[in-house]
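Extended Data, panel c. Modelled sequence:
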Amino acid sequence: GPLTIATTRRYLMLFDHNVFYPDPSSVTATRDRLIFEFDPPPGEVFRVTMDGRIEPTEHLSQSAETSLLVDGVAVVTVSYTTRVVP
């Protein structure tokens, strides 16, 4: 079935993003998260990429979490931090 991935909303707001590949079949938002639903991949591996950029004058550190949801419950979560330095 479809894959549902939730990511920290504040984190994605840092980026001027152009496109996700593959395109999500739907996107919903809560106060804290963006929730993407993707059609199932043709094989056993699913990868998603984002084409985006951060303004070159930004120097920041932002933490986030991304989760795989099953029936609305996070079954796997990864935490990460992006740091932009000159």
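The radius of gyration is 14 Å. This feature is highlighted in the accompanying rendering.
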